[in-house]
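Running log. JK asked me to keep both predictions on one page so they can be read side by side. First protein, sequence followed by its tokens:
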Amino acid sequence: MRPKCHPGYSGPIVSFEGNFAAQVLTNAFYYNIQDILDKIDKEGVYHTSTKDALSWGGYKSIGTFRKNLGRYYGDIFSRDMGRSLQEITMLGYTDDSSYAVPIITLRKALQWETDSSLKVNDMFLPSHWGMYVNKHNKGSFENDGHGLTTLFIYKLWQRLPNRDEWLRSHWQEIKGSGDWILWQFDHPEISGAANGLLHTTGESANGKRLFGLIPIAFVWTPFRRWHKWRNPLVKQTLPGNGAGVPTKCVKQFQKNYIGKRSKNMAGYGRFNMQAGRTMEPYLDL
């Protein structure tokens, strides 16, 4: 089998060397990238399911095979969008991803700060993304999706020719993604945060406070970079230590994830240290 690009593919040329499986991976890469691009419609809106996508059954893929379904076309899950748009952005598709950001992603998040119907305990919440990007769901603390979406915005910002102007025009929404993390620490009775760790309701954590927070661990770097880049603007509004998170939270995070907090956490600490070394070059933070 020879590598074959998806019809209309115009992205970078890649190849995996080796046996038959390597050739399969090369084809999968081309088709997956094209599929991500196809999830962005003409209005610049991302969709979790590609339009008219196949279905192999229900949520657990057990059921009747159906064509032209696009089961989650009407949904934008933050975890899916964050990692997908981050990938195409890093591959150079900034026109596609930059169009998708302001229309729904940032504007929808900002409604948490302005729409009185979204108040929790009579409080407005900072801009953030829960399970969904295109609709609000109270009680969703899907921090993995929030972190991945923030990282996507950061990767896009790095590659925009007018990034200084872009950051100014979107700072209120972007700042909220850092404030949201601090807000959870400050309101543990609502967020479930405890012992310096955030509660995560997404599938990657199921309420546990470990794997779903790996993307959040990388969010500190974008806010440090944004603070440095836009110091005259950000200095007056960025909370904590100027990096988007209080120093005590950083230290607590390092203690819980990397340090030997307990016998149960020690193994996970080593895992995170390994993951950090592996992921940082890819994320180019």
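And the second, directly underneath as requested:
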Amino acid sequence: LRVSRQHPTHPLLCVPPLPAAPPRSAFLFRSAFSPYHPFLAKKKQTEGTETIAENRKARFDYAIEETLECGIMLQGSEVRSVRDKQVSIQEGYVSARENPLSLTLHNVNIGELAHAAHNTGHKPKRTRALLAHKKEIIKLARKMAIKGYTIVPLSLYFKNGYAKVLVGIGKGKTRNDKRDSISQREAKRDIDRALSKRRNS
């Protein structure tokens, strides 16, 4: 039973009764399902780009004409291996098909976890699906049908917490093209050295 209290300075006025305190269980219920509760709070998304593996050999062997950023479908054990940088993409290649529509990554080695159970692991060089817009996959498939063109993975990285693969399409270089690439690379290296010496002097 709540009784009105007399006002401390005006005896003729009455102060409304104080509201009853809610039970302790109400606070526990509210805090447990609060968005600030540690168990229900959303995990902060990692921002930026973290490079996991690069395929420098592909840029040396092929004249890359176009690139495309794709998503990649990975198993849980594969994600952990990729984060540990147990990945090799140098021998990998990509196939694109228009009918049925598909974009797949082949021969990329994602190492197995040492502590993973036998039935929960993954095959290191299994075929993995890549994710891209339909029109981009059709474009790659039609380009790939032209003699001499190949699609190769250029890099694998995390972007804002999601695994991505940068693929490139291009033609294989001839021996002369490779010699030119080596000459250009060495000339650039010499220029960089000369500039660094000038800055330090």
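Observation for JK regarding the second prediction: DSSP finds five helices and eleven strands in the chain.
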